[in-house]
Amino acid sequence: MTSRERLIRTLRGEVPDCMPVAPDFSNMIPARLTGKPFWDIYLYQDPPIWEAYIRCARHFDIDSLMDAYYIPMDYPWETRPDEGWRDQIVYKDAQRIVTQMTRRENGKTEWASTVNVYPRDNPPTFAVPPAKLGLPAVPKRWEAVEGVKPQPAGSAALRRAKELMGDQGLIGVYVAHSAAFFEPDNLLAYIQLEPEAQERIAQERIATAERRFRHIMAMDVKPDFLCVGGSGTLVFQTPQIFRQLAFPAVKRAIDLACEAGMMTHVHSCGPEKELVKVFAEETGLTVIDPLETPPMGDCNLAELKRLYGRTITLKGNLHTTEVMLRGSVADVIAASKRAIDDAAEDGRFILATGDQCGRDTPDDNIRAMIETARTYGRYA
User: Fold this and answer.
1) Do residues 275 and 298 touch, judged by C-beta distance below 8 A?
2) Strand order from edge to edge, sheet including 225-227
3) Which residue among 15, 23, 123, 139 is buried most deeply as judged by most CB within 10 Å?
4) Pairing of strands 86-92, 96-105
5) How far is 295 from 288, CA to CA, in rounded Å?
6) How many angstroms separate the CA atoms of 165 and 207, rounded?
7) Is the peptide bond before 362 cis (omega within 30 degrees of 0)?
């Protein structure tokens, strides 16, 4: 089977030739494999991270379930006006480039209050106060960011990505988010709202999900699945707030996808046991990951398989630091076999890691995980 065929069979609840395997190396490993400074990928889009990821997936020959956040969607009604802001380089040395936005307003030069930092060998950090880097709020010298490669969005971006991906896997796009908040101040503001205002926000999120769904389904090229998850769903909010604010829109998106014969995916690092229960019992969600083990998460793979493995496809969950980064090849093989023993029966399982393998994860460890799935994880 091709990787694409193997994944489709698994997501449909059928048994493939062998266990699909998709370690999460969404950012740092693809960027490293380009051999370029990371700022080429993240600042100059040369290549964009989605292209680096697909080439990495092909390099290791994984069964790629490429989730939403790579493909820039162009929802026209959500596009913010340009307002004249331009990115400027306000500091650079051999290890990092720092940029800051500026514009002319009423004849005066206005600078953004934060900067973005693009390291040579790590993903960028955004919205950093300049003082934390020893930089002035208003720079004395700067130069324009030039040479950024223009990139398509929406259906044009999806078409390019699918052409490059080929039979290596499936590609999804974002339609709804399971995490309503990422900042404590926003969460506090929501809690202080009257119940009527909270309900209005929940209904607005449903309307947004419906509108995005209609837009996606009207595109001339369709994704393979829709993404309705979000990093740290139960890190940034309680299960109750998730149910009040985020879940109604997510459930609506899943219902619409099911009606259209479209598969759906939740990625949510951190505690996820309760989410698996909710999605398996109350929705038609197709697949959920990364099912992280303690201390990052709270998932026991064998337990989740026993409870929900005939309803939902599970994807996880080798520890990204203790096993993948710091472990030996033998450790990776042993952990992969345990996960297969815990969750492979009757299909509906994709061998994967927890959230985001680190930059320096040994290539041999990644290959050992893949080879174990292809051999020990064979169904036929």
Assistant:
1) no
2) 64-66, 169-174, 225-227, 263-267, 287-289, 313-318, 349-353
3) 23
4) antiparallel
5) 19
6) 32
7) no
Q: What is the C-alpha separation between 238 and 21, in angstroms, rounded? A: 31
- Tally of CA atoms within 13 A in the half-sphere of 342 that contains its CB: 23
Instruction: Say which residues have a Cβ less than 8 Å from residue 92's Cβ, sequence separation at least 6.
Output: 98
Q: For the whole model, what pTM was predicted? A: 0.94
Place of tokens 């337990």: 303
Query: For residue 136, with 0-12 CB atoms within 10 Å meaning exposed, 13-18 middle and 19 or more buried, which class applies?
Result: exposed
CB neighbour burial string for 28-46, b if at least 16 within 10 angstroms, e if fewer: bbbbbbbeebbbbbbbbbb
| Cβ neighbours for 307, distance < 8 A, ≥ 6 positions apart | 277, 280
Question: Mind listing the pLDDT tens digit for each residue in 236-270?
Answer: 888 988 999 899 999 999 999 999 999 999 999 99
Cβ contact 294:322 at 8 Å: no
Does the N-terminal peptide bond of residue 248 adopt cis geometry, omega within 30 degrees of 0? no
Q: Which tokens is 323 given?
A: 């096993």
Q: Which two tokens stand for residue 61?
A: 């020959």
Cα 337 from Cα 344, distance rounded (Å): 10
Q: Please say whether the beta carbons of 70 and 53 come within 8 A.
A: yes
pLDDT at 53 over 80: yes
Average pLDDT, the chain: 94
**Residue 96 neighbours by CB distance under 10 Å:** 19
The 3-state secondary structure of 132-172, one letter per residue? HHCCCCCCCCCEECCCCCCCCCHHHHHHHHHHHHHHHEEEE
Measure the CA–CA gap between 140 and 97, rounded to whole angstroms.
Answer: 16
Once rounded to an integer, what is the mean pLDDT over residues 177-192? 73
Contact residues for 62 (Cβ-Cβ < 8 A; gap 6+): 3, 21, 22, 23, 168, 169, 370
- The count of residues in the chain is 380
- Is residue 81 predicted with pLDDT exceeding 90? no
With 90 as the cut, is the pLDDT of residue 307 above it? yes
